[in-house]
Design goal:
About 20% of the residues lie in helices and about 35% in strands. It contains five helices and 13 strands. Strands 1, 3, 6, 7, 8 and 9 form a six-stranded antiparallel β-sheet that branches. Strands 11-12-10-13 form a four-stranded antiparallel β-sheet, with helices on one face. The longest helix is centred in the middle third of the chain and has 12 residues, at about 135-145.
Length: about 220
């Protein structure tokens, strides 16, 4: 029997992958907090870095002063995980995270949410590493290699500190670069698979994690 392709395996895994949201209390964070947040989460959940399907959704925030961002009153910390990891992830409840000197109190977890079948996906930051000169070519080749049909639009440039660079002066060599990305006119089975697989690297920084987006249609006619 032939082994399933990565896309087929991810389609099967989609039924067992969830988003898990935690209540979160905190005042502010450094504007570039993704690497520090990922480090704090890995300290609390040591298995997180070894789980290839784990990802951390970007925190919602608003601009503050002195290179800080402000958290809303009803802030949420979102993880994407295999359903089998949910019980372990609930160990975060009640923990206090130190994100580069800024405390975050993790509260109760909501019921896990299944992935949503859709035809349009959005990731605010997709990257493959320090450089982004070949971003469009990398997207095209990766989607072709997976066998994903549909269309895509790359958006604004993004940049953040690389893992291990938190708390140190920012230099070009310590940064990751990429772009926002919309995938549209996807077959729903491919969209589910891509929510499992992600695209690019650094899922624990929130990179490459796709969420459903407002529909963009009429630009193609992929098979469903």
């Amino acid at each position: 029997m032939a082994l399933p392709t990565a896309l087929e395996a991810a389609q099967q895994a989609a039924a067992h992958t969830v988003d898990l949201a935690f209540e979160l209390a905190g005042r502010d964070l450094p504007r570039e907090h993704c690497a520090a947040l990922a480090a704090a989460l890995q300290q609390a959940l040591p298995w997180l870095a070894e789980e290839p399907q784990a990802g951390v959704h970007a925190l919602r925030s608003s601009p503050g002063e002195d290179d800080l961002v402000l958290l809303p009153r009803r802030a949420r910390l979102g993880l994407r995980l295999p359903a089998a990891r949910v019980a372990q992830a609930r160990a975060l409840c009640g923990q206090r995270l130190d994100v580069d000197g800024h405390p975050l109190q993790v509260g109760a977890a909501a019921p896990p949410r299944e992935l949503v079948p859709t035809r349009t996906l959005y990731a605010d930051f997709v990257c493959w590493g320090p450089a982004d000169e070949d971003f469009d070519a990398q997207v095209a080749s990766t989607l072709a290699e997976l066998g994903v049909t549909g269309h895509w639009i790359s958006g604004g440039a993004r940049s953040t500190l690389a893992p291990g660079s938190e708390g140190r002066p920012s230099t070009e060599s310590s940064r990751l670069h990429g772009h926002a990305l919309v995938l549209h006119d996807l077959p729903q089975r491919h969209a589910l698979a891509l929510q499992v697989l992600g695209l690019g690297r650094h899922r624990l920084l929130g990179c490459g994690l796709f969420v459903p987006h407002k529909t963009i249609t009429g630009l193609g006619s992929p098979e469903d």
